């Protein structure tokens, strides 16, 4: 008769997998490591512009950027330009986020809404917003309207996608327990949508301003 050895029940918690164990570095080492890559990128930018590897027509060097910045500060144009950019970005983000939130809720909470909205929004997501710049200029001109609409289109897609996923990923049992008429949304998805929209706004605003500057330069050369 062979004896079967049964291991004693362990009263302690199971240790996490070896690959998942987080080893926290001290703050004096972690903080410099987070700034290491930006510092290296800045140093490469400075060295490339100083040695001529980066053409000033493609990317101006840090000294020229700093001199242009101080000039705008002294003549007061920086405040005017910043206010105009903030207003433009605020209007565009307001339109895009509102539309994306409403469409995401409609598609996430209703099968009919998903059938009506999701296919079109997937097409909008697949089109890079930078490809719409010449089309928007032809439709709306080179004034503020096209900039606001470009920012709105750039932000509506990520807001829709994350809102839709946030609604669909909520546990239905949790949604049934919460006795209130408001829709239940995963706030982590909403936060991710806000971060993505903020990053896209900067690119859209830069593209819009650059397109207008190029158009003005072309108009001045042809006159």
Count helical runs: 8
Which blocks of ≥5 consecutive residues have pLDDT under 50?
Answer: 173-184
Write down how many β-strands occur, each being a DSSP E stretch of 2 or more residues.
Answer: 0
Structural class: mainly alpha
> What is the radius of gyration?
26 Å
- Strand content of the residues, in percent? under 5%
Q: What portion of residues is helical? A: over 70%
Estimate the global geometry from the Cα principal axes: globular
Structure report:
The protein is globular, with a radius of gyration of 26 Å. The protein folds into 2 domains: 31-75, no CATH class; 76-222, no CATH class. It has helices at residues 27-51, 62-75, 77-109, 111-126, 133-140, 144-168, 172-177, 187-222. It is mostly helical and 223 residues long.
SSE blueprint and pairings:
Blueprint: H1 27-51, H2 62-75, H3 77-109, H4 111-126, H5 133-140, H6 144-168, H7 172-177, H8 187-222
Helix pairs in contact: 3-4, 3-6, 3-8, 4-6, 5-6, 6-8
List keywords for this structure.
single chain, 223 residues, mainly alpha, 2 domains, 8 helices, 0% strand
Short description:
The protein has 223 residues and is an all-alpha fold. Helices cover 73% and strands 0% of the residues.
């Amino acid at each position: 008769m062979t004896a079967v050895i049964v291991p004693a029940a362990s009263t302690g918690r199971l240790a996490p997998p070896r690959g998942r164990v987080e080893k926290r570095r001290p703050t004096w080492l972690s903080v410099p490591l987070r700034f290491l890559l930006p510092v290296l990128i800045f140093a490469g930018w400075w060295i490339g512009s100083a040695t001529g590897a980066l053409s000033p027509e493609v990317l101006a060097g840090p000294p020229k950027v700093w001199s242009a910045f101080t000039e705008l500060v002294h003549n007061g144009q920086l405040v005017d330009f910043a206010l105009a950019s903030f207003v433009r970005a605020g209007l565009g983000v307001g339109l895009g986020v509102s539309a994306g939130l409403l469409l995401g809720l409609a598609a996430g909470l209703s099968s009919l809404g998903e059938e009506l909205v999701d296919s079109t929004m997937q097409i909008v997501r697949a089109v890079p917003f930078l490809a719409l710049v010449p089309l928007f200029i032809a439709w709306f001109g080179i004034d503020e309207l096209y900039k606001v609409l470009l920012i709105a289109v750039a932000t509506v897609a990520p807001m829709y996608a994350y809102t839709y996923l946030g609604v669909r990923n909520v546990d239905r049992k949790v949604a049934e327990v919460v006795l209130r008429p408001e829709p239940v949304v995963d706030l982590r998805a909403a936060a991710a949508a806000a971060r993505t929209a903020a990053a896209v706004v900067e690119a859209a605003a830069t593209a819009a301003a650059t397109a207008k500057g190029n158009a003005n330069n072309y108009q001045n050369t042809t006159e």
